[in-house]
C-alpha cells in the first residue's frame, strides 16, 4: 500500500502543447543464434545509439522553445526545472479537465507501465520487487481508466518508453496528460434540490474521492437540463450552490459531503421546507460493441435521468431511445441487455432476474451492460434461430 499524495494546483505549463512533434518509433534489434555468424558489431552499436536518440525526441525542441520565450517565462521554466530536480513525485493532468488541476503521484508507484511481480526467490535475495505500475496507479489515485497518455506536446507515449520518459528531461517539466474514462462510484449519492420546485436526485459520482465542489457543480448543471422542473432555467455553474461555505477547488471528500445528503441551491433565494415529491435516479450504462459490429463506431449516450418510479422495461426503452438519438447511431441496433447491479453490502455485482420491479426498488446501484451491433448483422443473428427451427 502507499500513501495518496494527490494535490491540486492551477499553474499551467508555459510550453506550447499544440506544436506538432516528430513521431516516436521503437524498432526491435536483430538477434542471432549461437551458431550463426554475427553481423558487424559496429553497425549494431550505431543502430542502437540511433534508436536511443529517437526514444526521447523532444529534448532539442524544449531548449529551442526556451530561447524564444520572454524573460518572465524563461524564469518560470527554469524554476520548474530546479524545483522538479530530484523530486519523488510525477505530475499528471486529465485531458479536457475544465479545472486544469495537476495531480502528484509517487514516482515509485508509476515507475513502470504495468504491474511487475517479484521473481522467485534465489539463494540470496529477491531479484525484483513488486511495483504498482502506471495503469494501476492512475486508476487508484486519479480514478481514471486510462486509454492513453501524452506528453506536454500532445505526443503519445509508448509503454516501452515510459520507464525512461517519466524521469528524464524534458518530460519532468510539465504534467503528463491522461486520457480515459472517469471511474464511477459504486454507490449512489443523494442530492436534494431545495430551490423550487425541488427534486431528489440519486446518482453515481465520477472519481468520487477526487471530485471537487466545482466539478460537481458542472455535473449538476448538465443533469438539470434533463429535468423538466429546471430545464428551462438553464443555470450556469456559478449560479449553483452546494453545501455552505465550500470553495470550488475543495474536494467533496475533504468537505465530508459524500456520506450525507448534499443540498443544491440555484440563484433562486427561496427554499422549500418539505421533502420533494419527485425523485430521479441517474443511470449510466456500459455500452459495448458486439462481436458482429464491423464499423468503427463507439457509442456512449452518457448519464440518463429516469424517474424513480419507472418500471425496468421502460428504463430499457429510455436507454435505447437515447442510443438512437446519438450521432452516427443510424444503422446500429441494440442486441443484448444485461441488468447488472452493484451490491453495496456485498461489494460485488449481480444480475437482476425480476424485471417486473421499478427502478427505485432495485437493491444497489443499477449499471446495465448494453451490446450493440450493425443493424444488418443484428437481424441475421435474430433470424438464425428461427431458420434452424424451420429446418
TrEMBL record:
Segments of this protein annotated with the region Disordered: 1-38
Residue spans of biased composition, Polar residues class: 23-33
Composition skew (Low complexity), residue ranges: 1-12
Domain of life: Eukaryota
Designated name of the protein: Uncharacterized protein
Source organism of the structure: Sphaerosporella brunnea
